[in-house]
Amino acid sequence: MKVICQREGLLQACQLASMVLPTRDIKPVLKNLKFTAELGQATIYATDLELGLKVEVAGVTVESPGVALLPATRVIQILREARVAEMELEVTGHEVVLRGGSLEYEMPIEDAAQFPDPPEFPWDEAAEITAGPLKDMIRRTAFACATEVARYTMTGLLWETTTDGAVRLVATDGRRLAMTTGPKLNKGKAQSVVVPSKAMNTLERCLPDDEEEVQVGLEPRQAAFKTGRVTLTTLLVEGRFPDYKAVLPKREDIKARIPLHAGAFTSAIRQAAIMIDDETRRLSLKFAPGMLTLSARNANSGRSRVELPLEYAGAPIETFFNPNYLLDMLKQYPPDTSMDIELISGAHPALVRAGDDYQYLIMPLT
Predict the structure, then answer these.
(1) DSSP for 276-311?
(2) Using CA atoms, how far apart are residues 195 and 153, in angstroms rounded to an integer?
């Protein structure tokens, strides 16, 4: 195999694919990137056996086709440090040679036959969604996924397609819940699957063009997403996702609906949280007519009190939250975003709405 590559294009493809490299020692061979050169194109594939990413390499001239495993870390280091426009990649026997300008690197390589092939997917059955809205949906929900292994089914995002074709993403870790509804798919059926959060976060980073169409395929055990250059496949999270509809407050139970601006609310939380107790992470929010008072107390360093004017005329309500759970949501929105916080009482979860397509539920601290 012999290929001439634009260095920057090869580096970008390697870096994208490397996002799914295993973080623990599953199989040593998986520390490699599978480079496949065919007449007219070249691709790089990486997998951790649950998540796979295949990337088409831009700016490639294939002089002779073939397949080789490239040691991921070493090759990325070489491409990052090289200061040349083009690199030549040649496989001779059990070695791969990278050349460019005055540079030449020889590395032993493993048997490509030991590396798994990308799974096949029936793309003729896939639906489509625009990249921009999909990225926003992932960004506004994925942060709320659980990270603890004990909460296995919560480590993924619920991808729900409604009967009218609209996509809904839901994430929860048991202490907060983020839900957003996006545009309708061009085809498909009502279904519900749990996609690993790592797969969704990786997908978001693979969508630089907001106008690009993303093909989406959902099967009983796997999901796949495809753009012009990238194909992402992932096994699904098995098990039953929590009944998120059961925890959302009913509109008739809401006692206070308070309008806020994301930027001012964020600043007030950060200012008050300077004096937060690192163990309890307890921030007081006292809603009263015309004013929100935020306060925190630390036995060792003192207390804080911050006032934020409000358009609110209802009865006073005090509640307590971990400020990080509020800030995680708020930083997903521009400062001028208008949102409402809905409360039943200080002991009930608070629901934040941003427009008609986003809801964020947060449990209070006792």
Answers:
(1) --TTT--EEEEEETTEEEEEEEETTTEEEEEEEE--
(2) 10
Residue 216: name the closest of 181, 180, 186 by CA. 186
pLDDT tens per residue, range 243-274: 999 999 999 999 999 999 999 999 999 999 99
CATH 3.40.50.300 fits 2-114, yes or no: no
DSSP assignment of 68-97 equals EEEEHHHHHHHHHH---SEEEEEEETTEEE
**Residues contacting residue 166 through CB under 8 Å, at least 6 positions apart:** 181, 182, 183, 184, 185
Q: Check residue 150 and give its pLDDT.
A: 62
For 138-155, the pLDDT digits (tens) are: 999 999 999 877 677 899
CATH assignment of 123-245, among 3.10.150.10, 3.30.530.20, 2.40.30.20, 1.10.340.30: 3.10.150.10
Angle, CA 308 vertex, CA 304 and CA 311 arms, to 5°: 150
- pLDDT, position 177: 98
Our CA dihedral for 319, 324, 325, 326, rounded to 10 degrees, sits at 70
pTM of the model: 0.92
Distances 107 to 71, 85, 264, 290 between C-alpha atoms, Å: 8, 21, 55, 69
Residues of the chain with pLDDT under 70: 150, 188
Q: Which residue has the tokens 């061009």?
A: 186
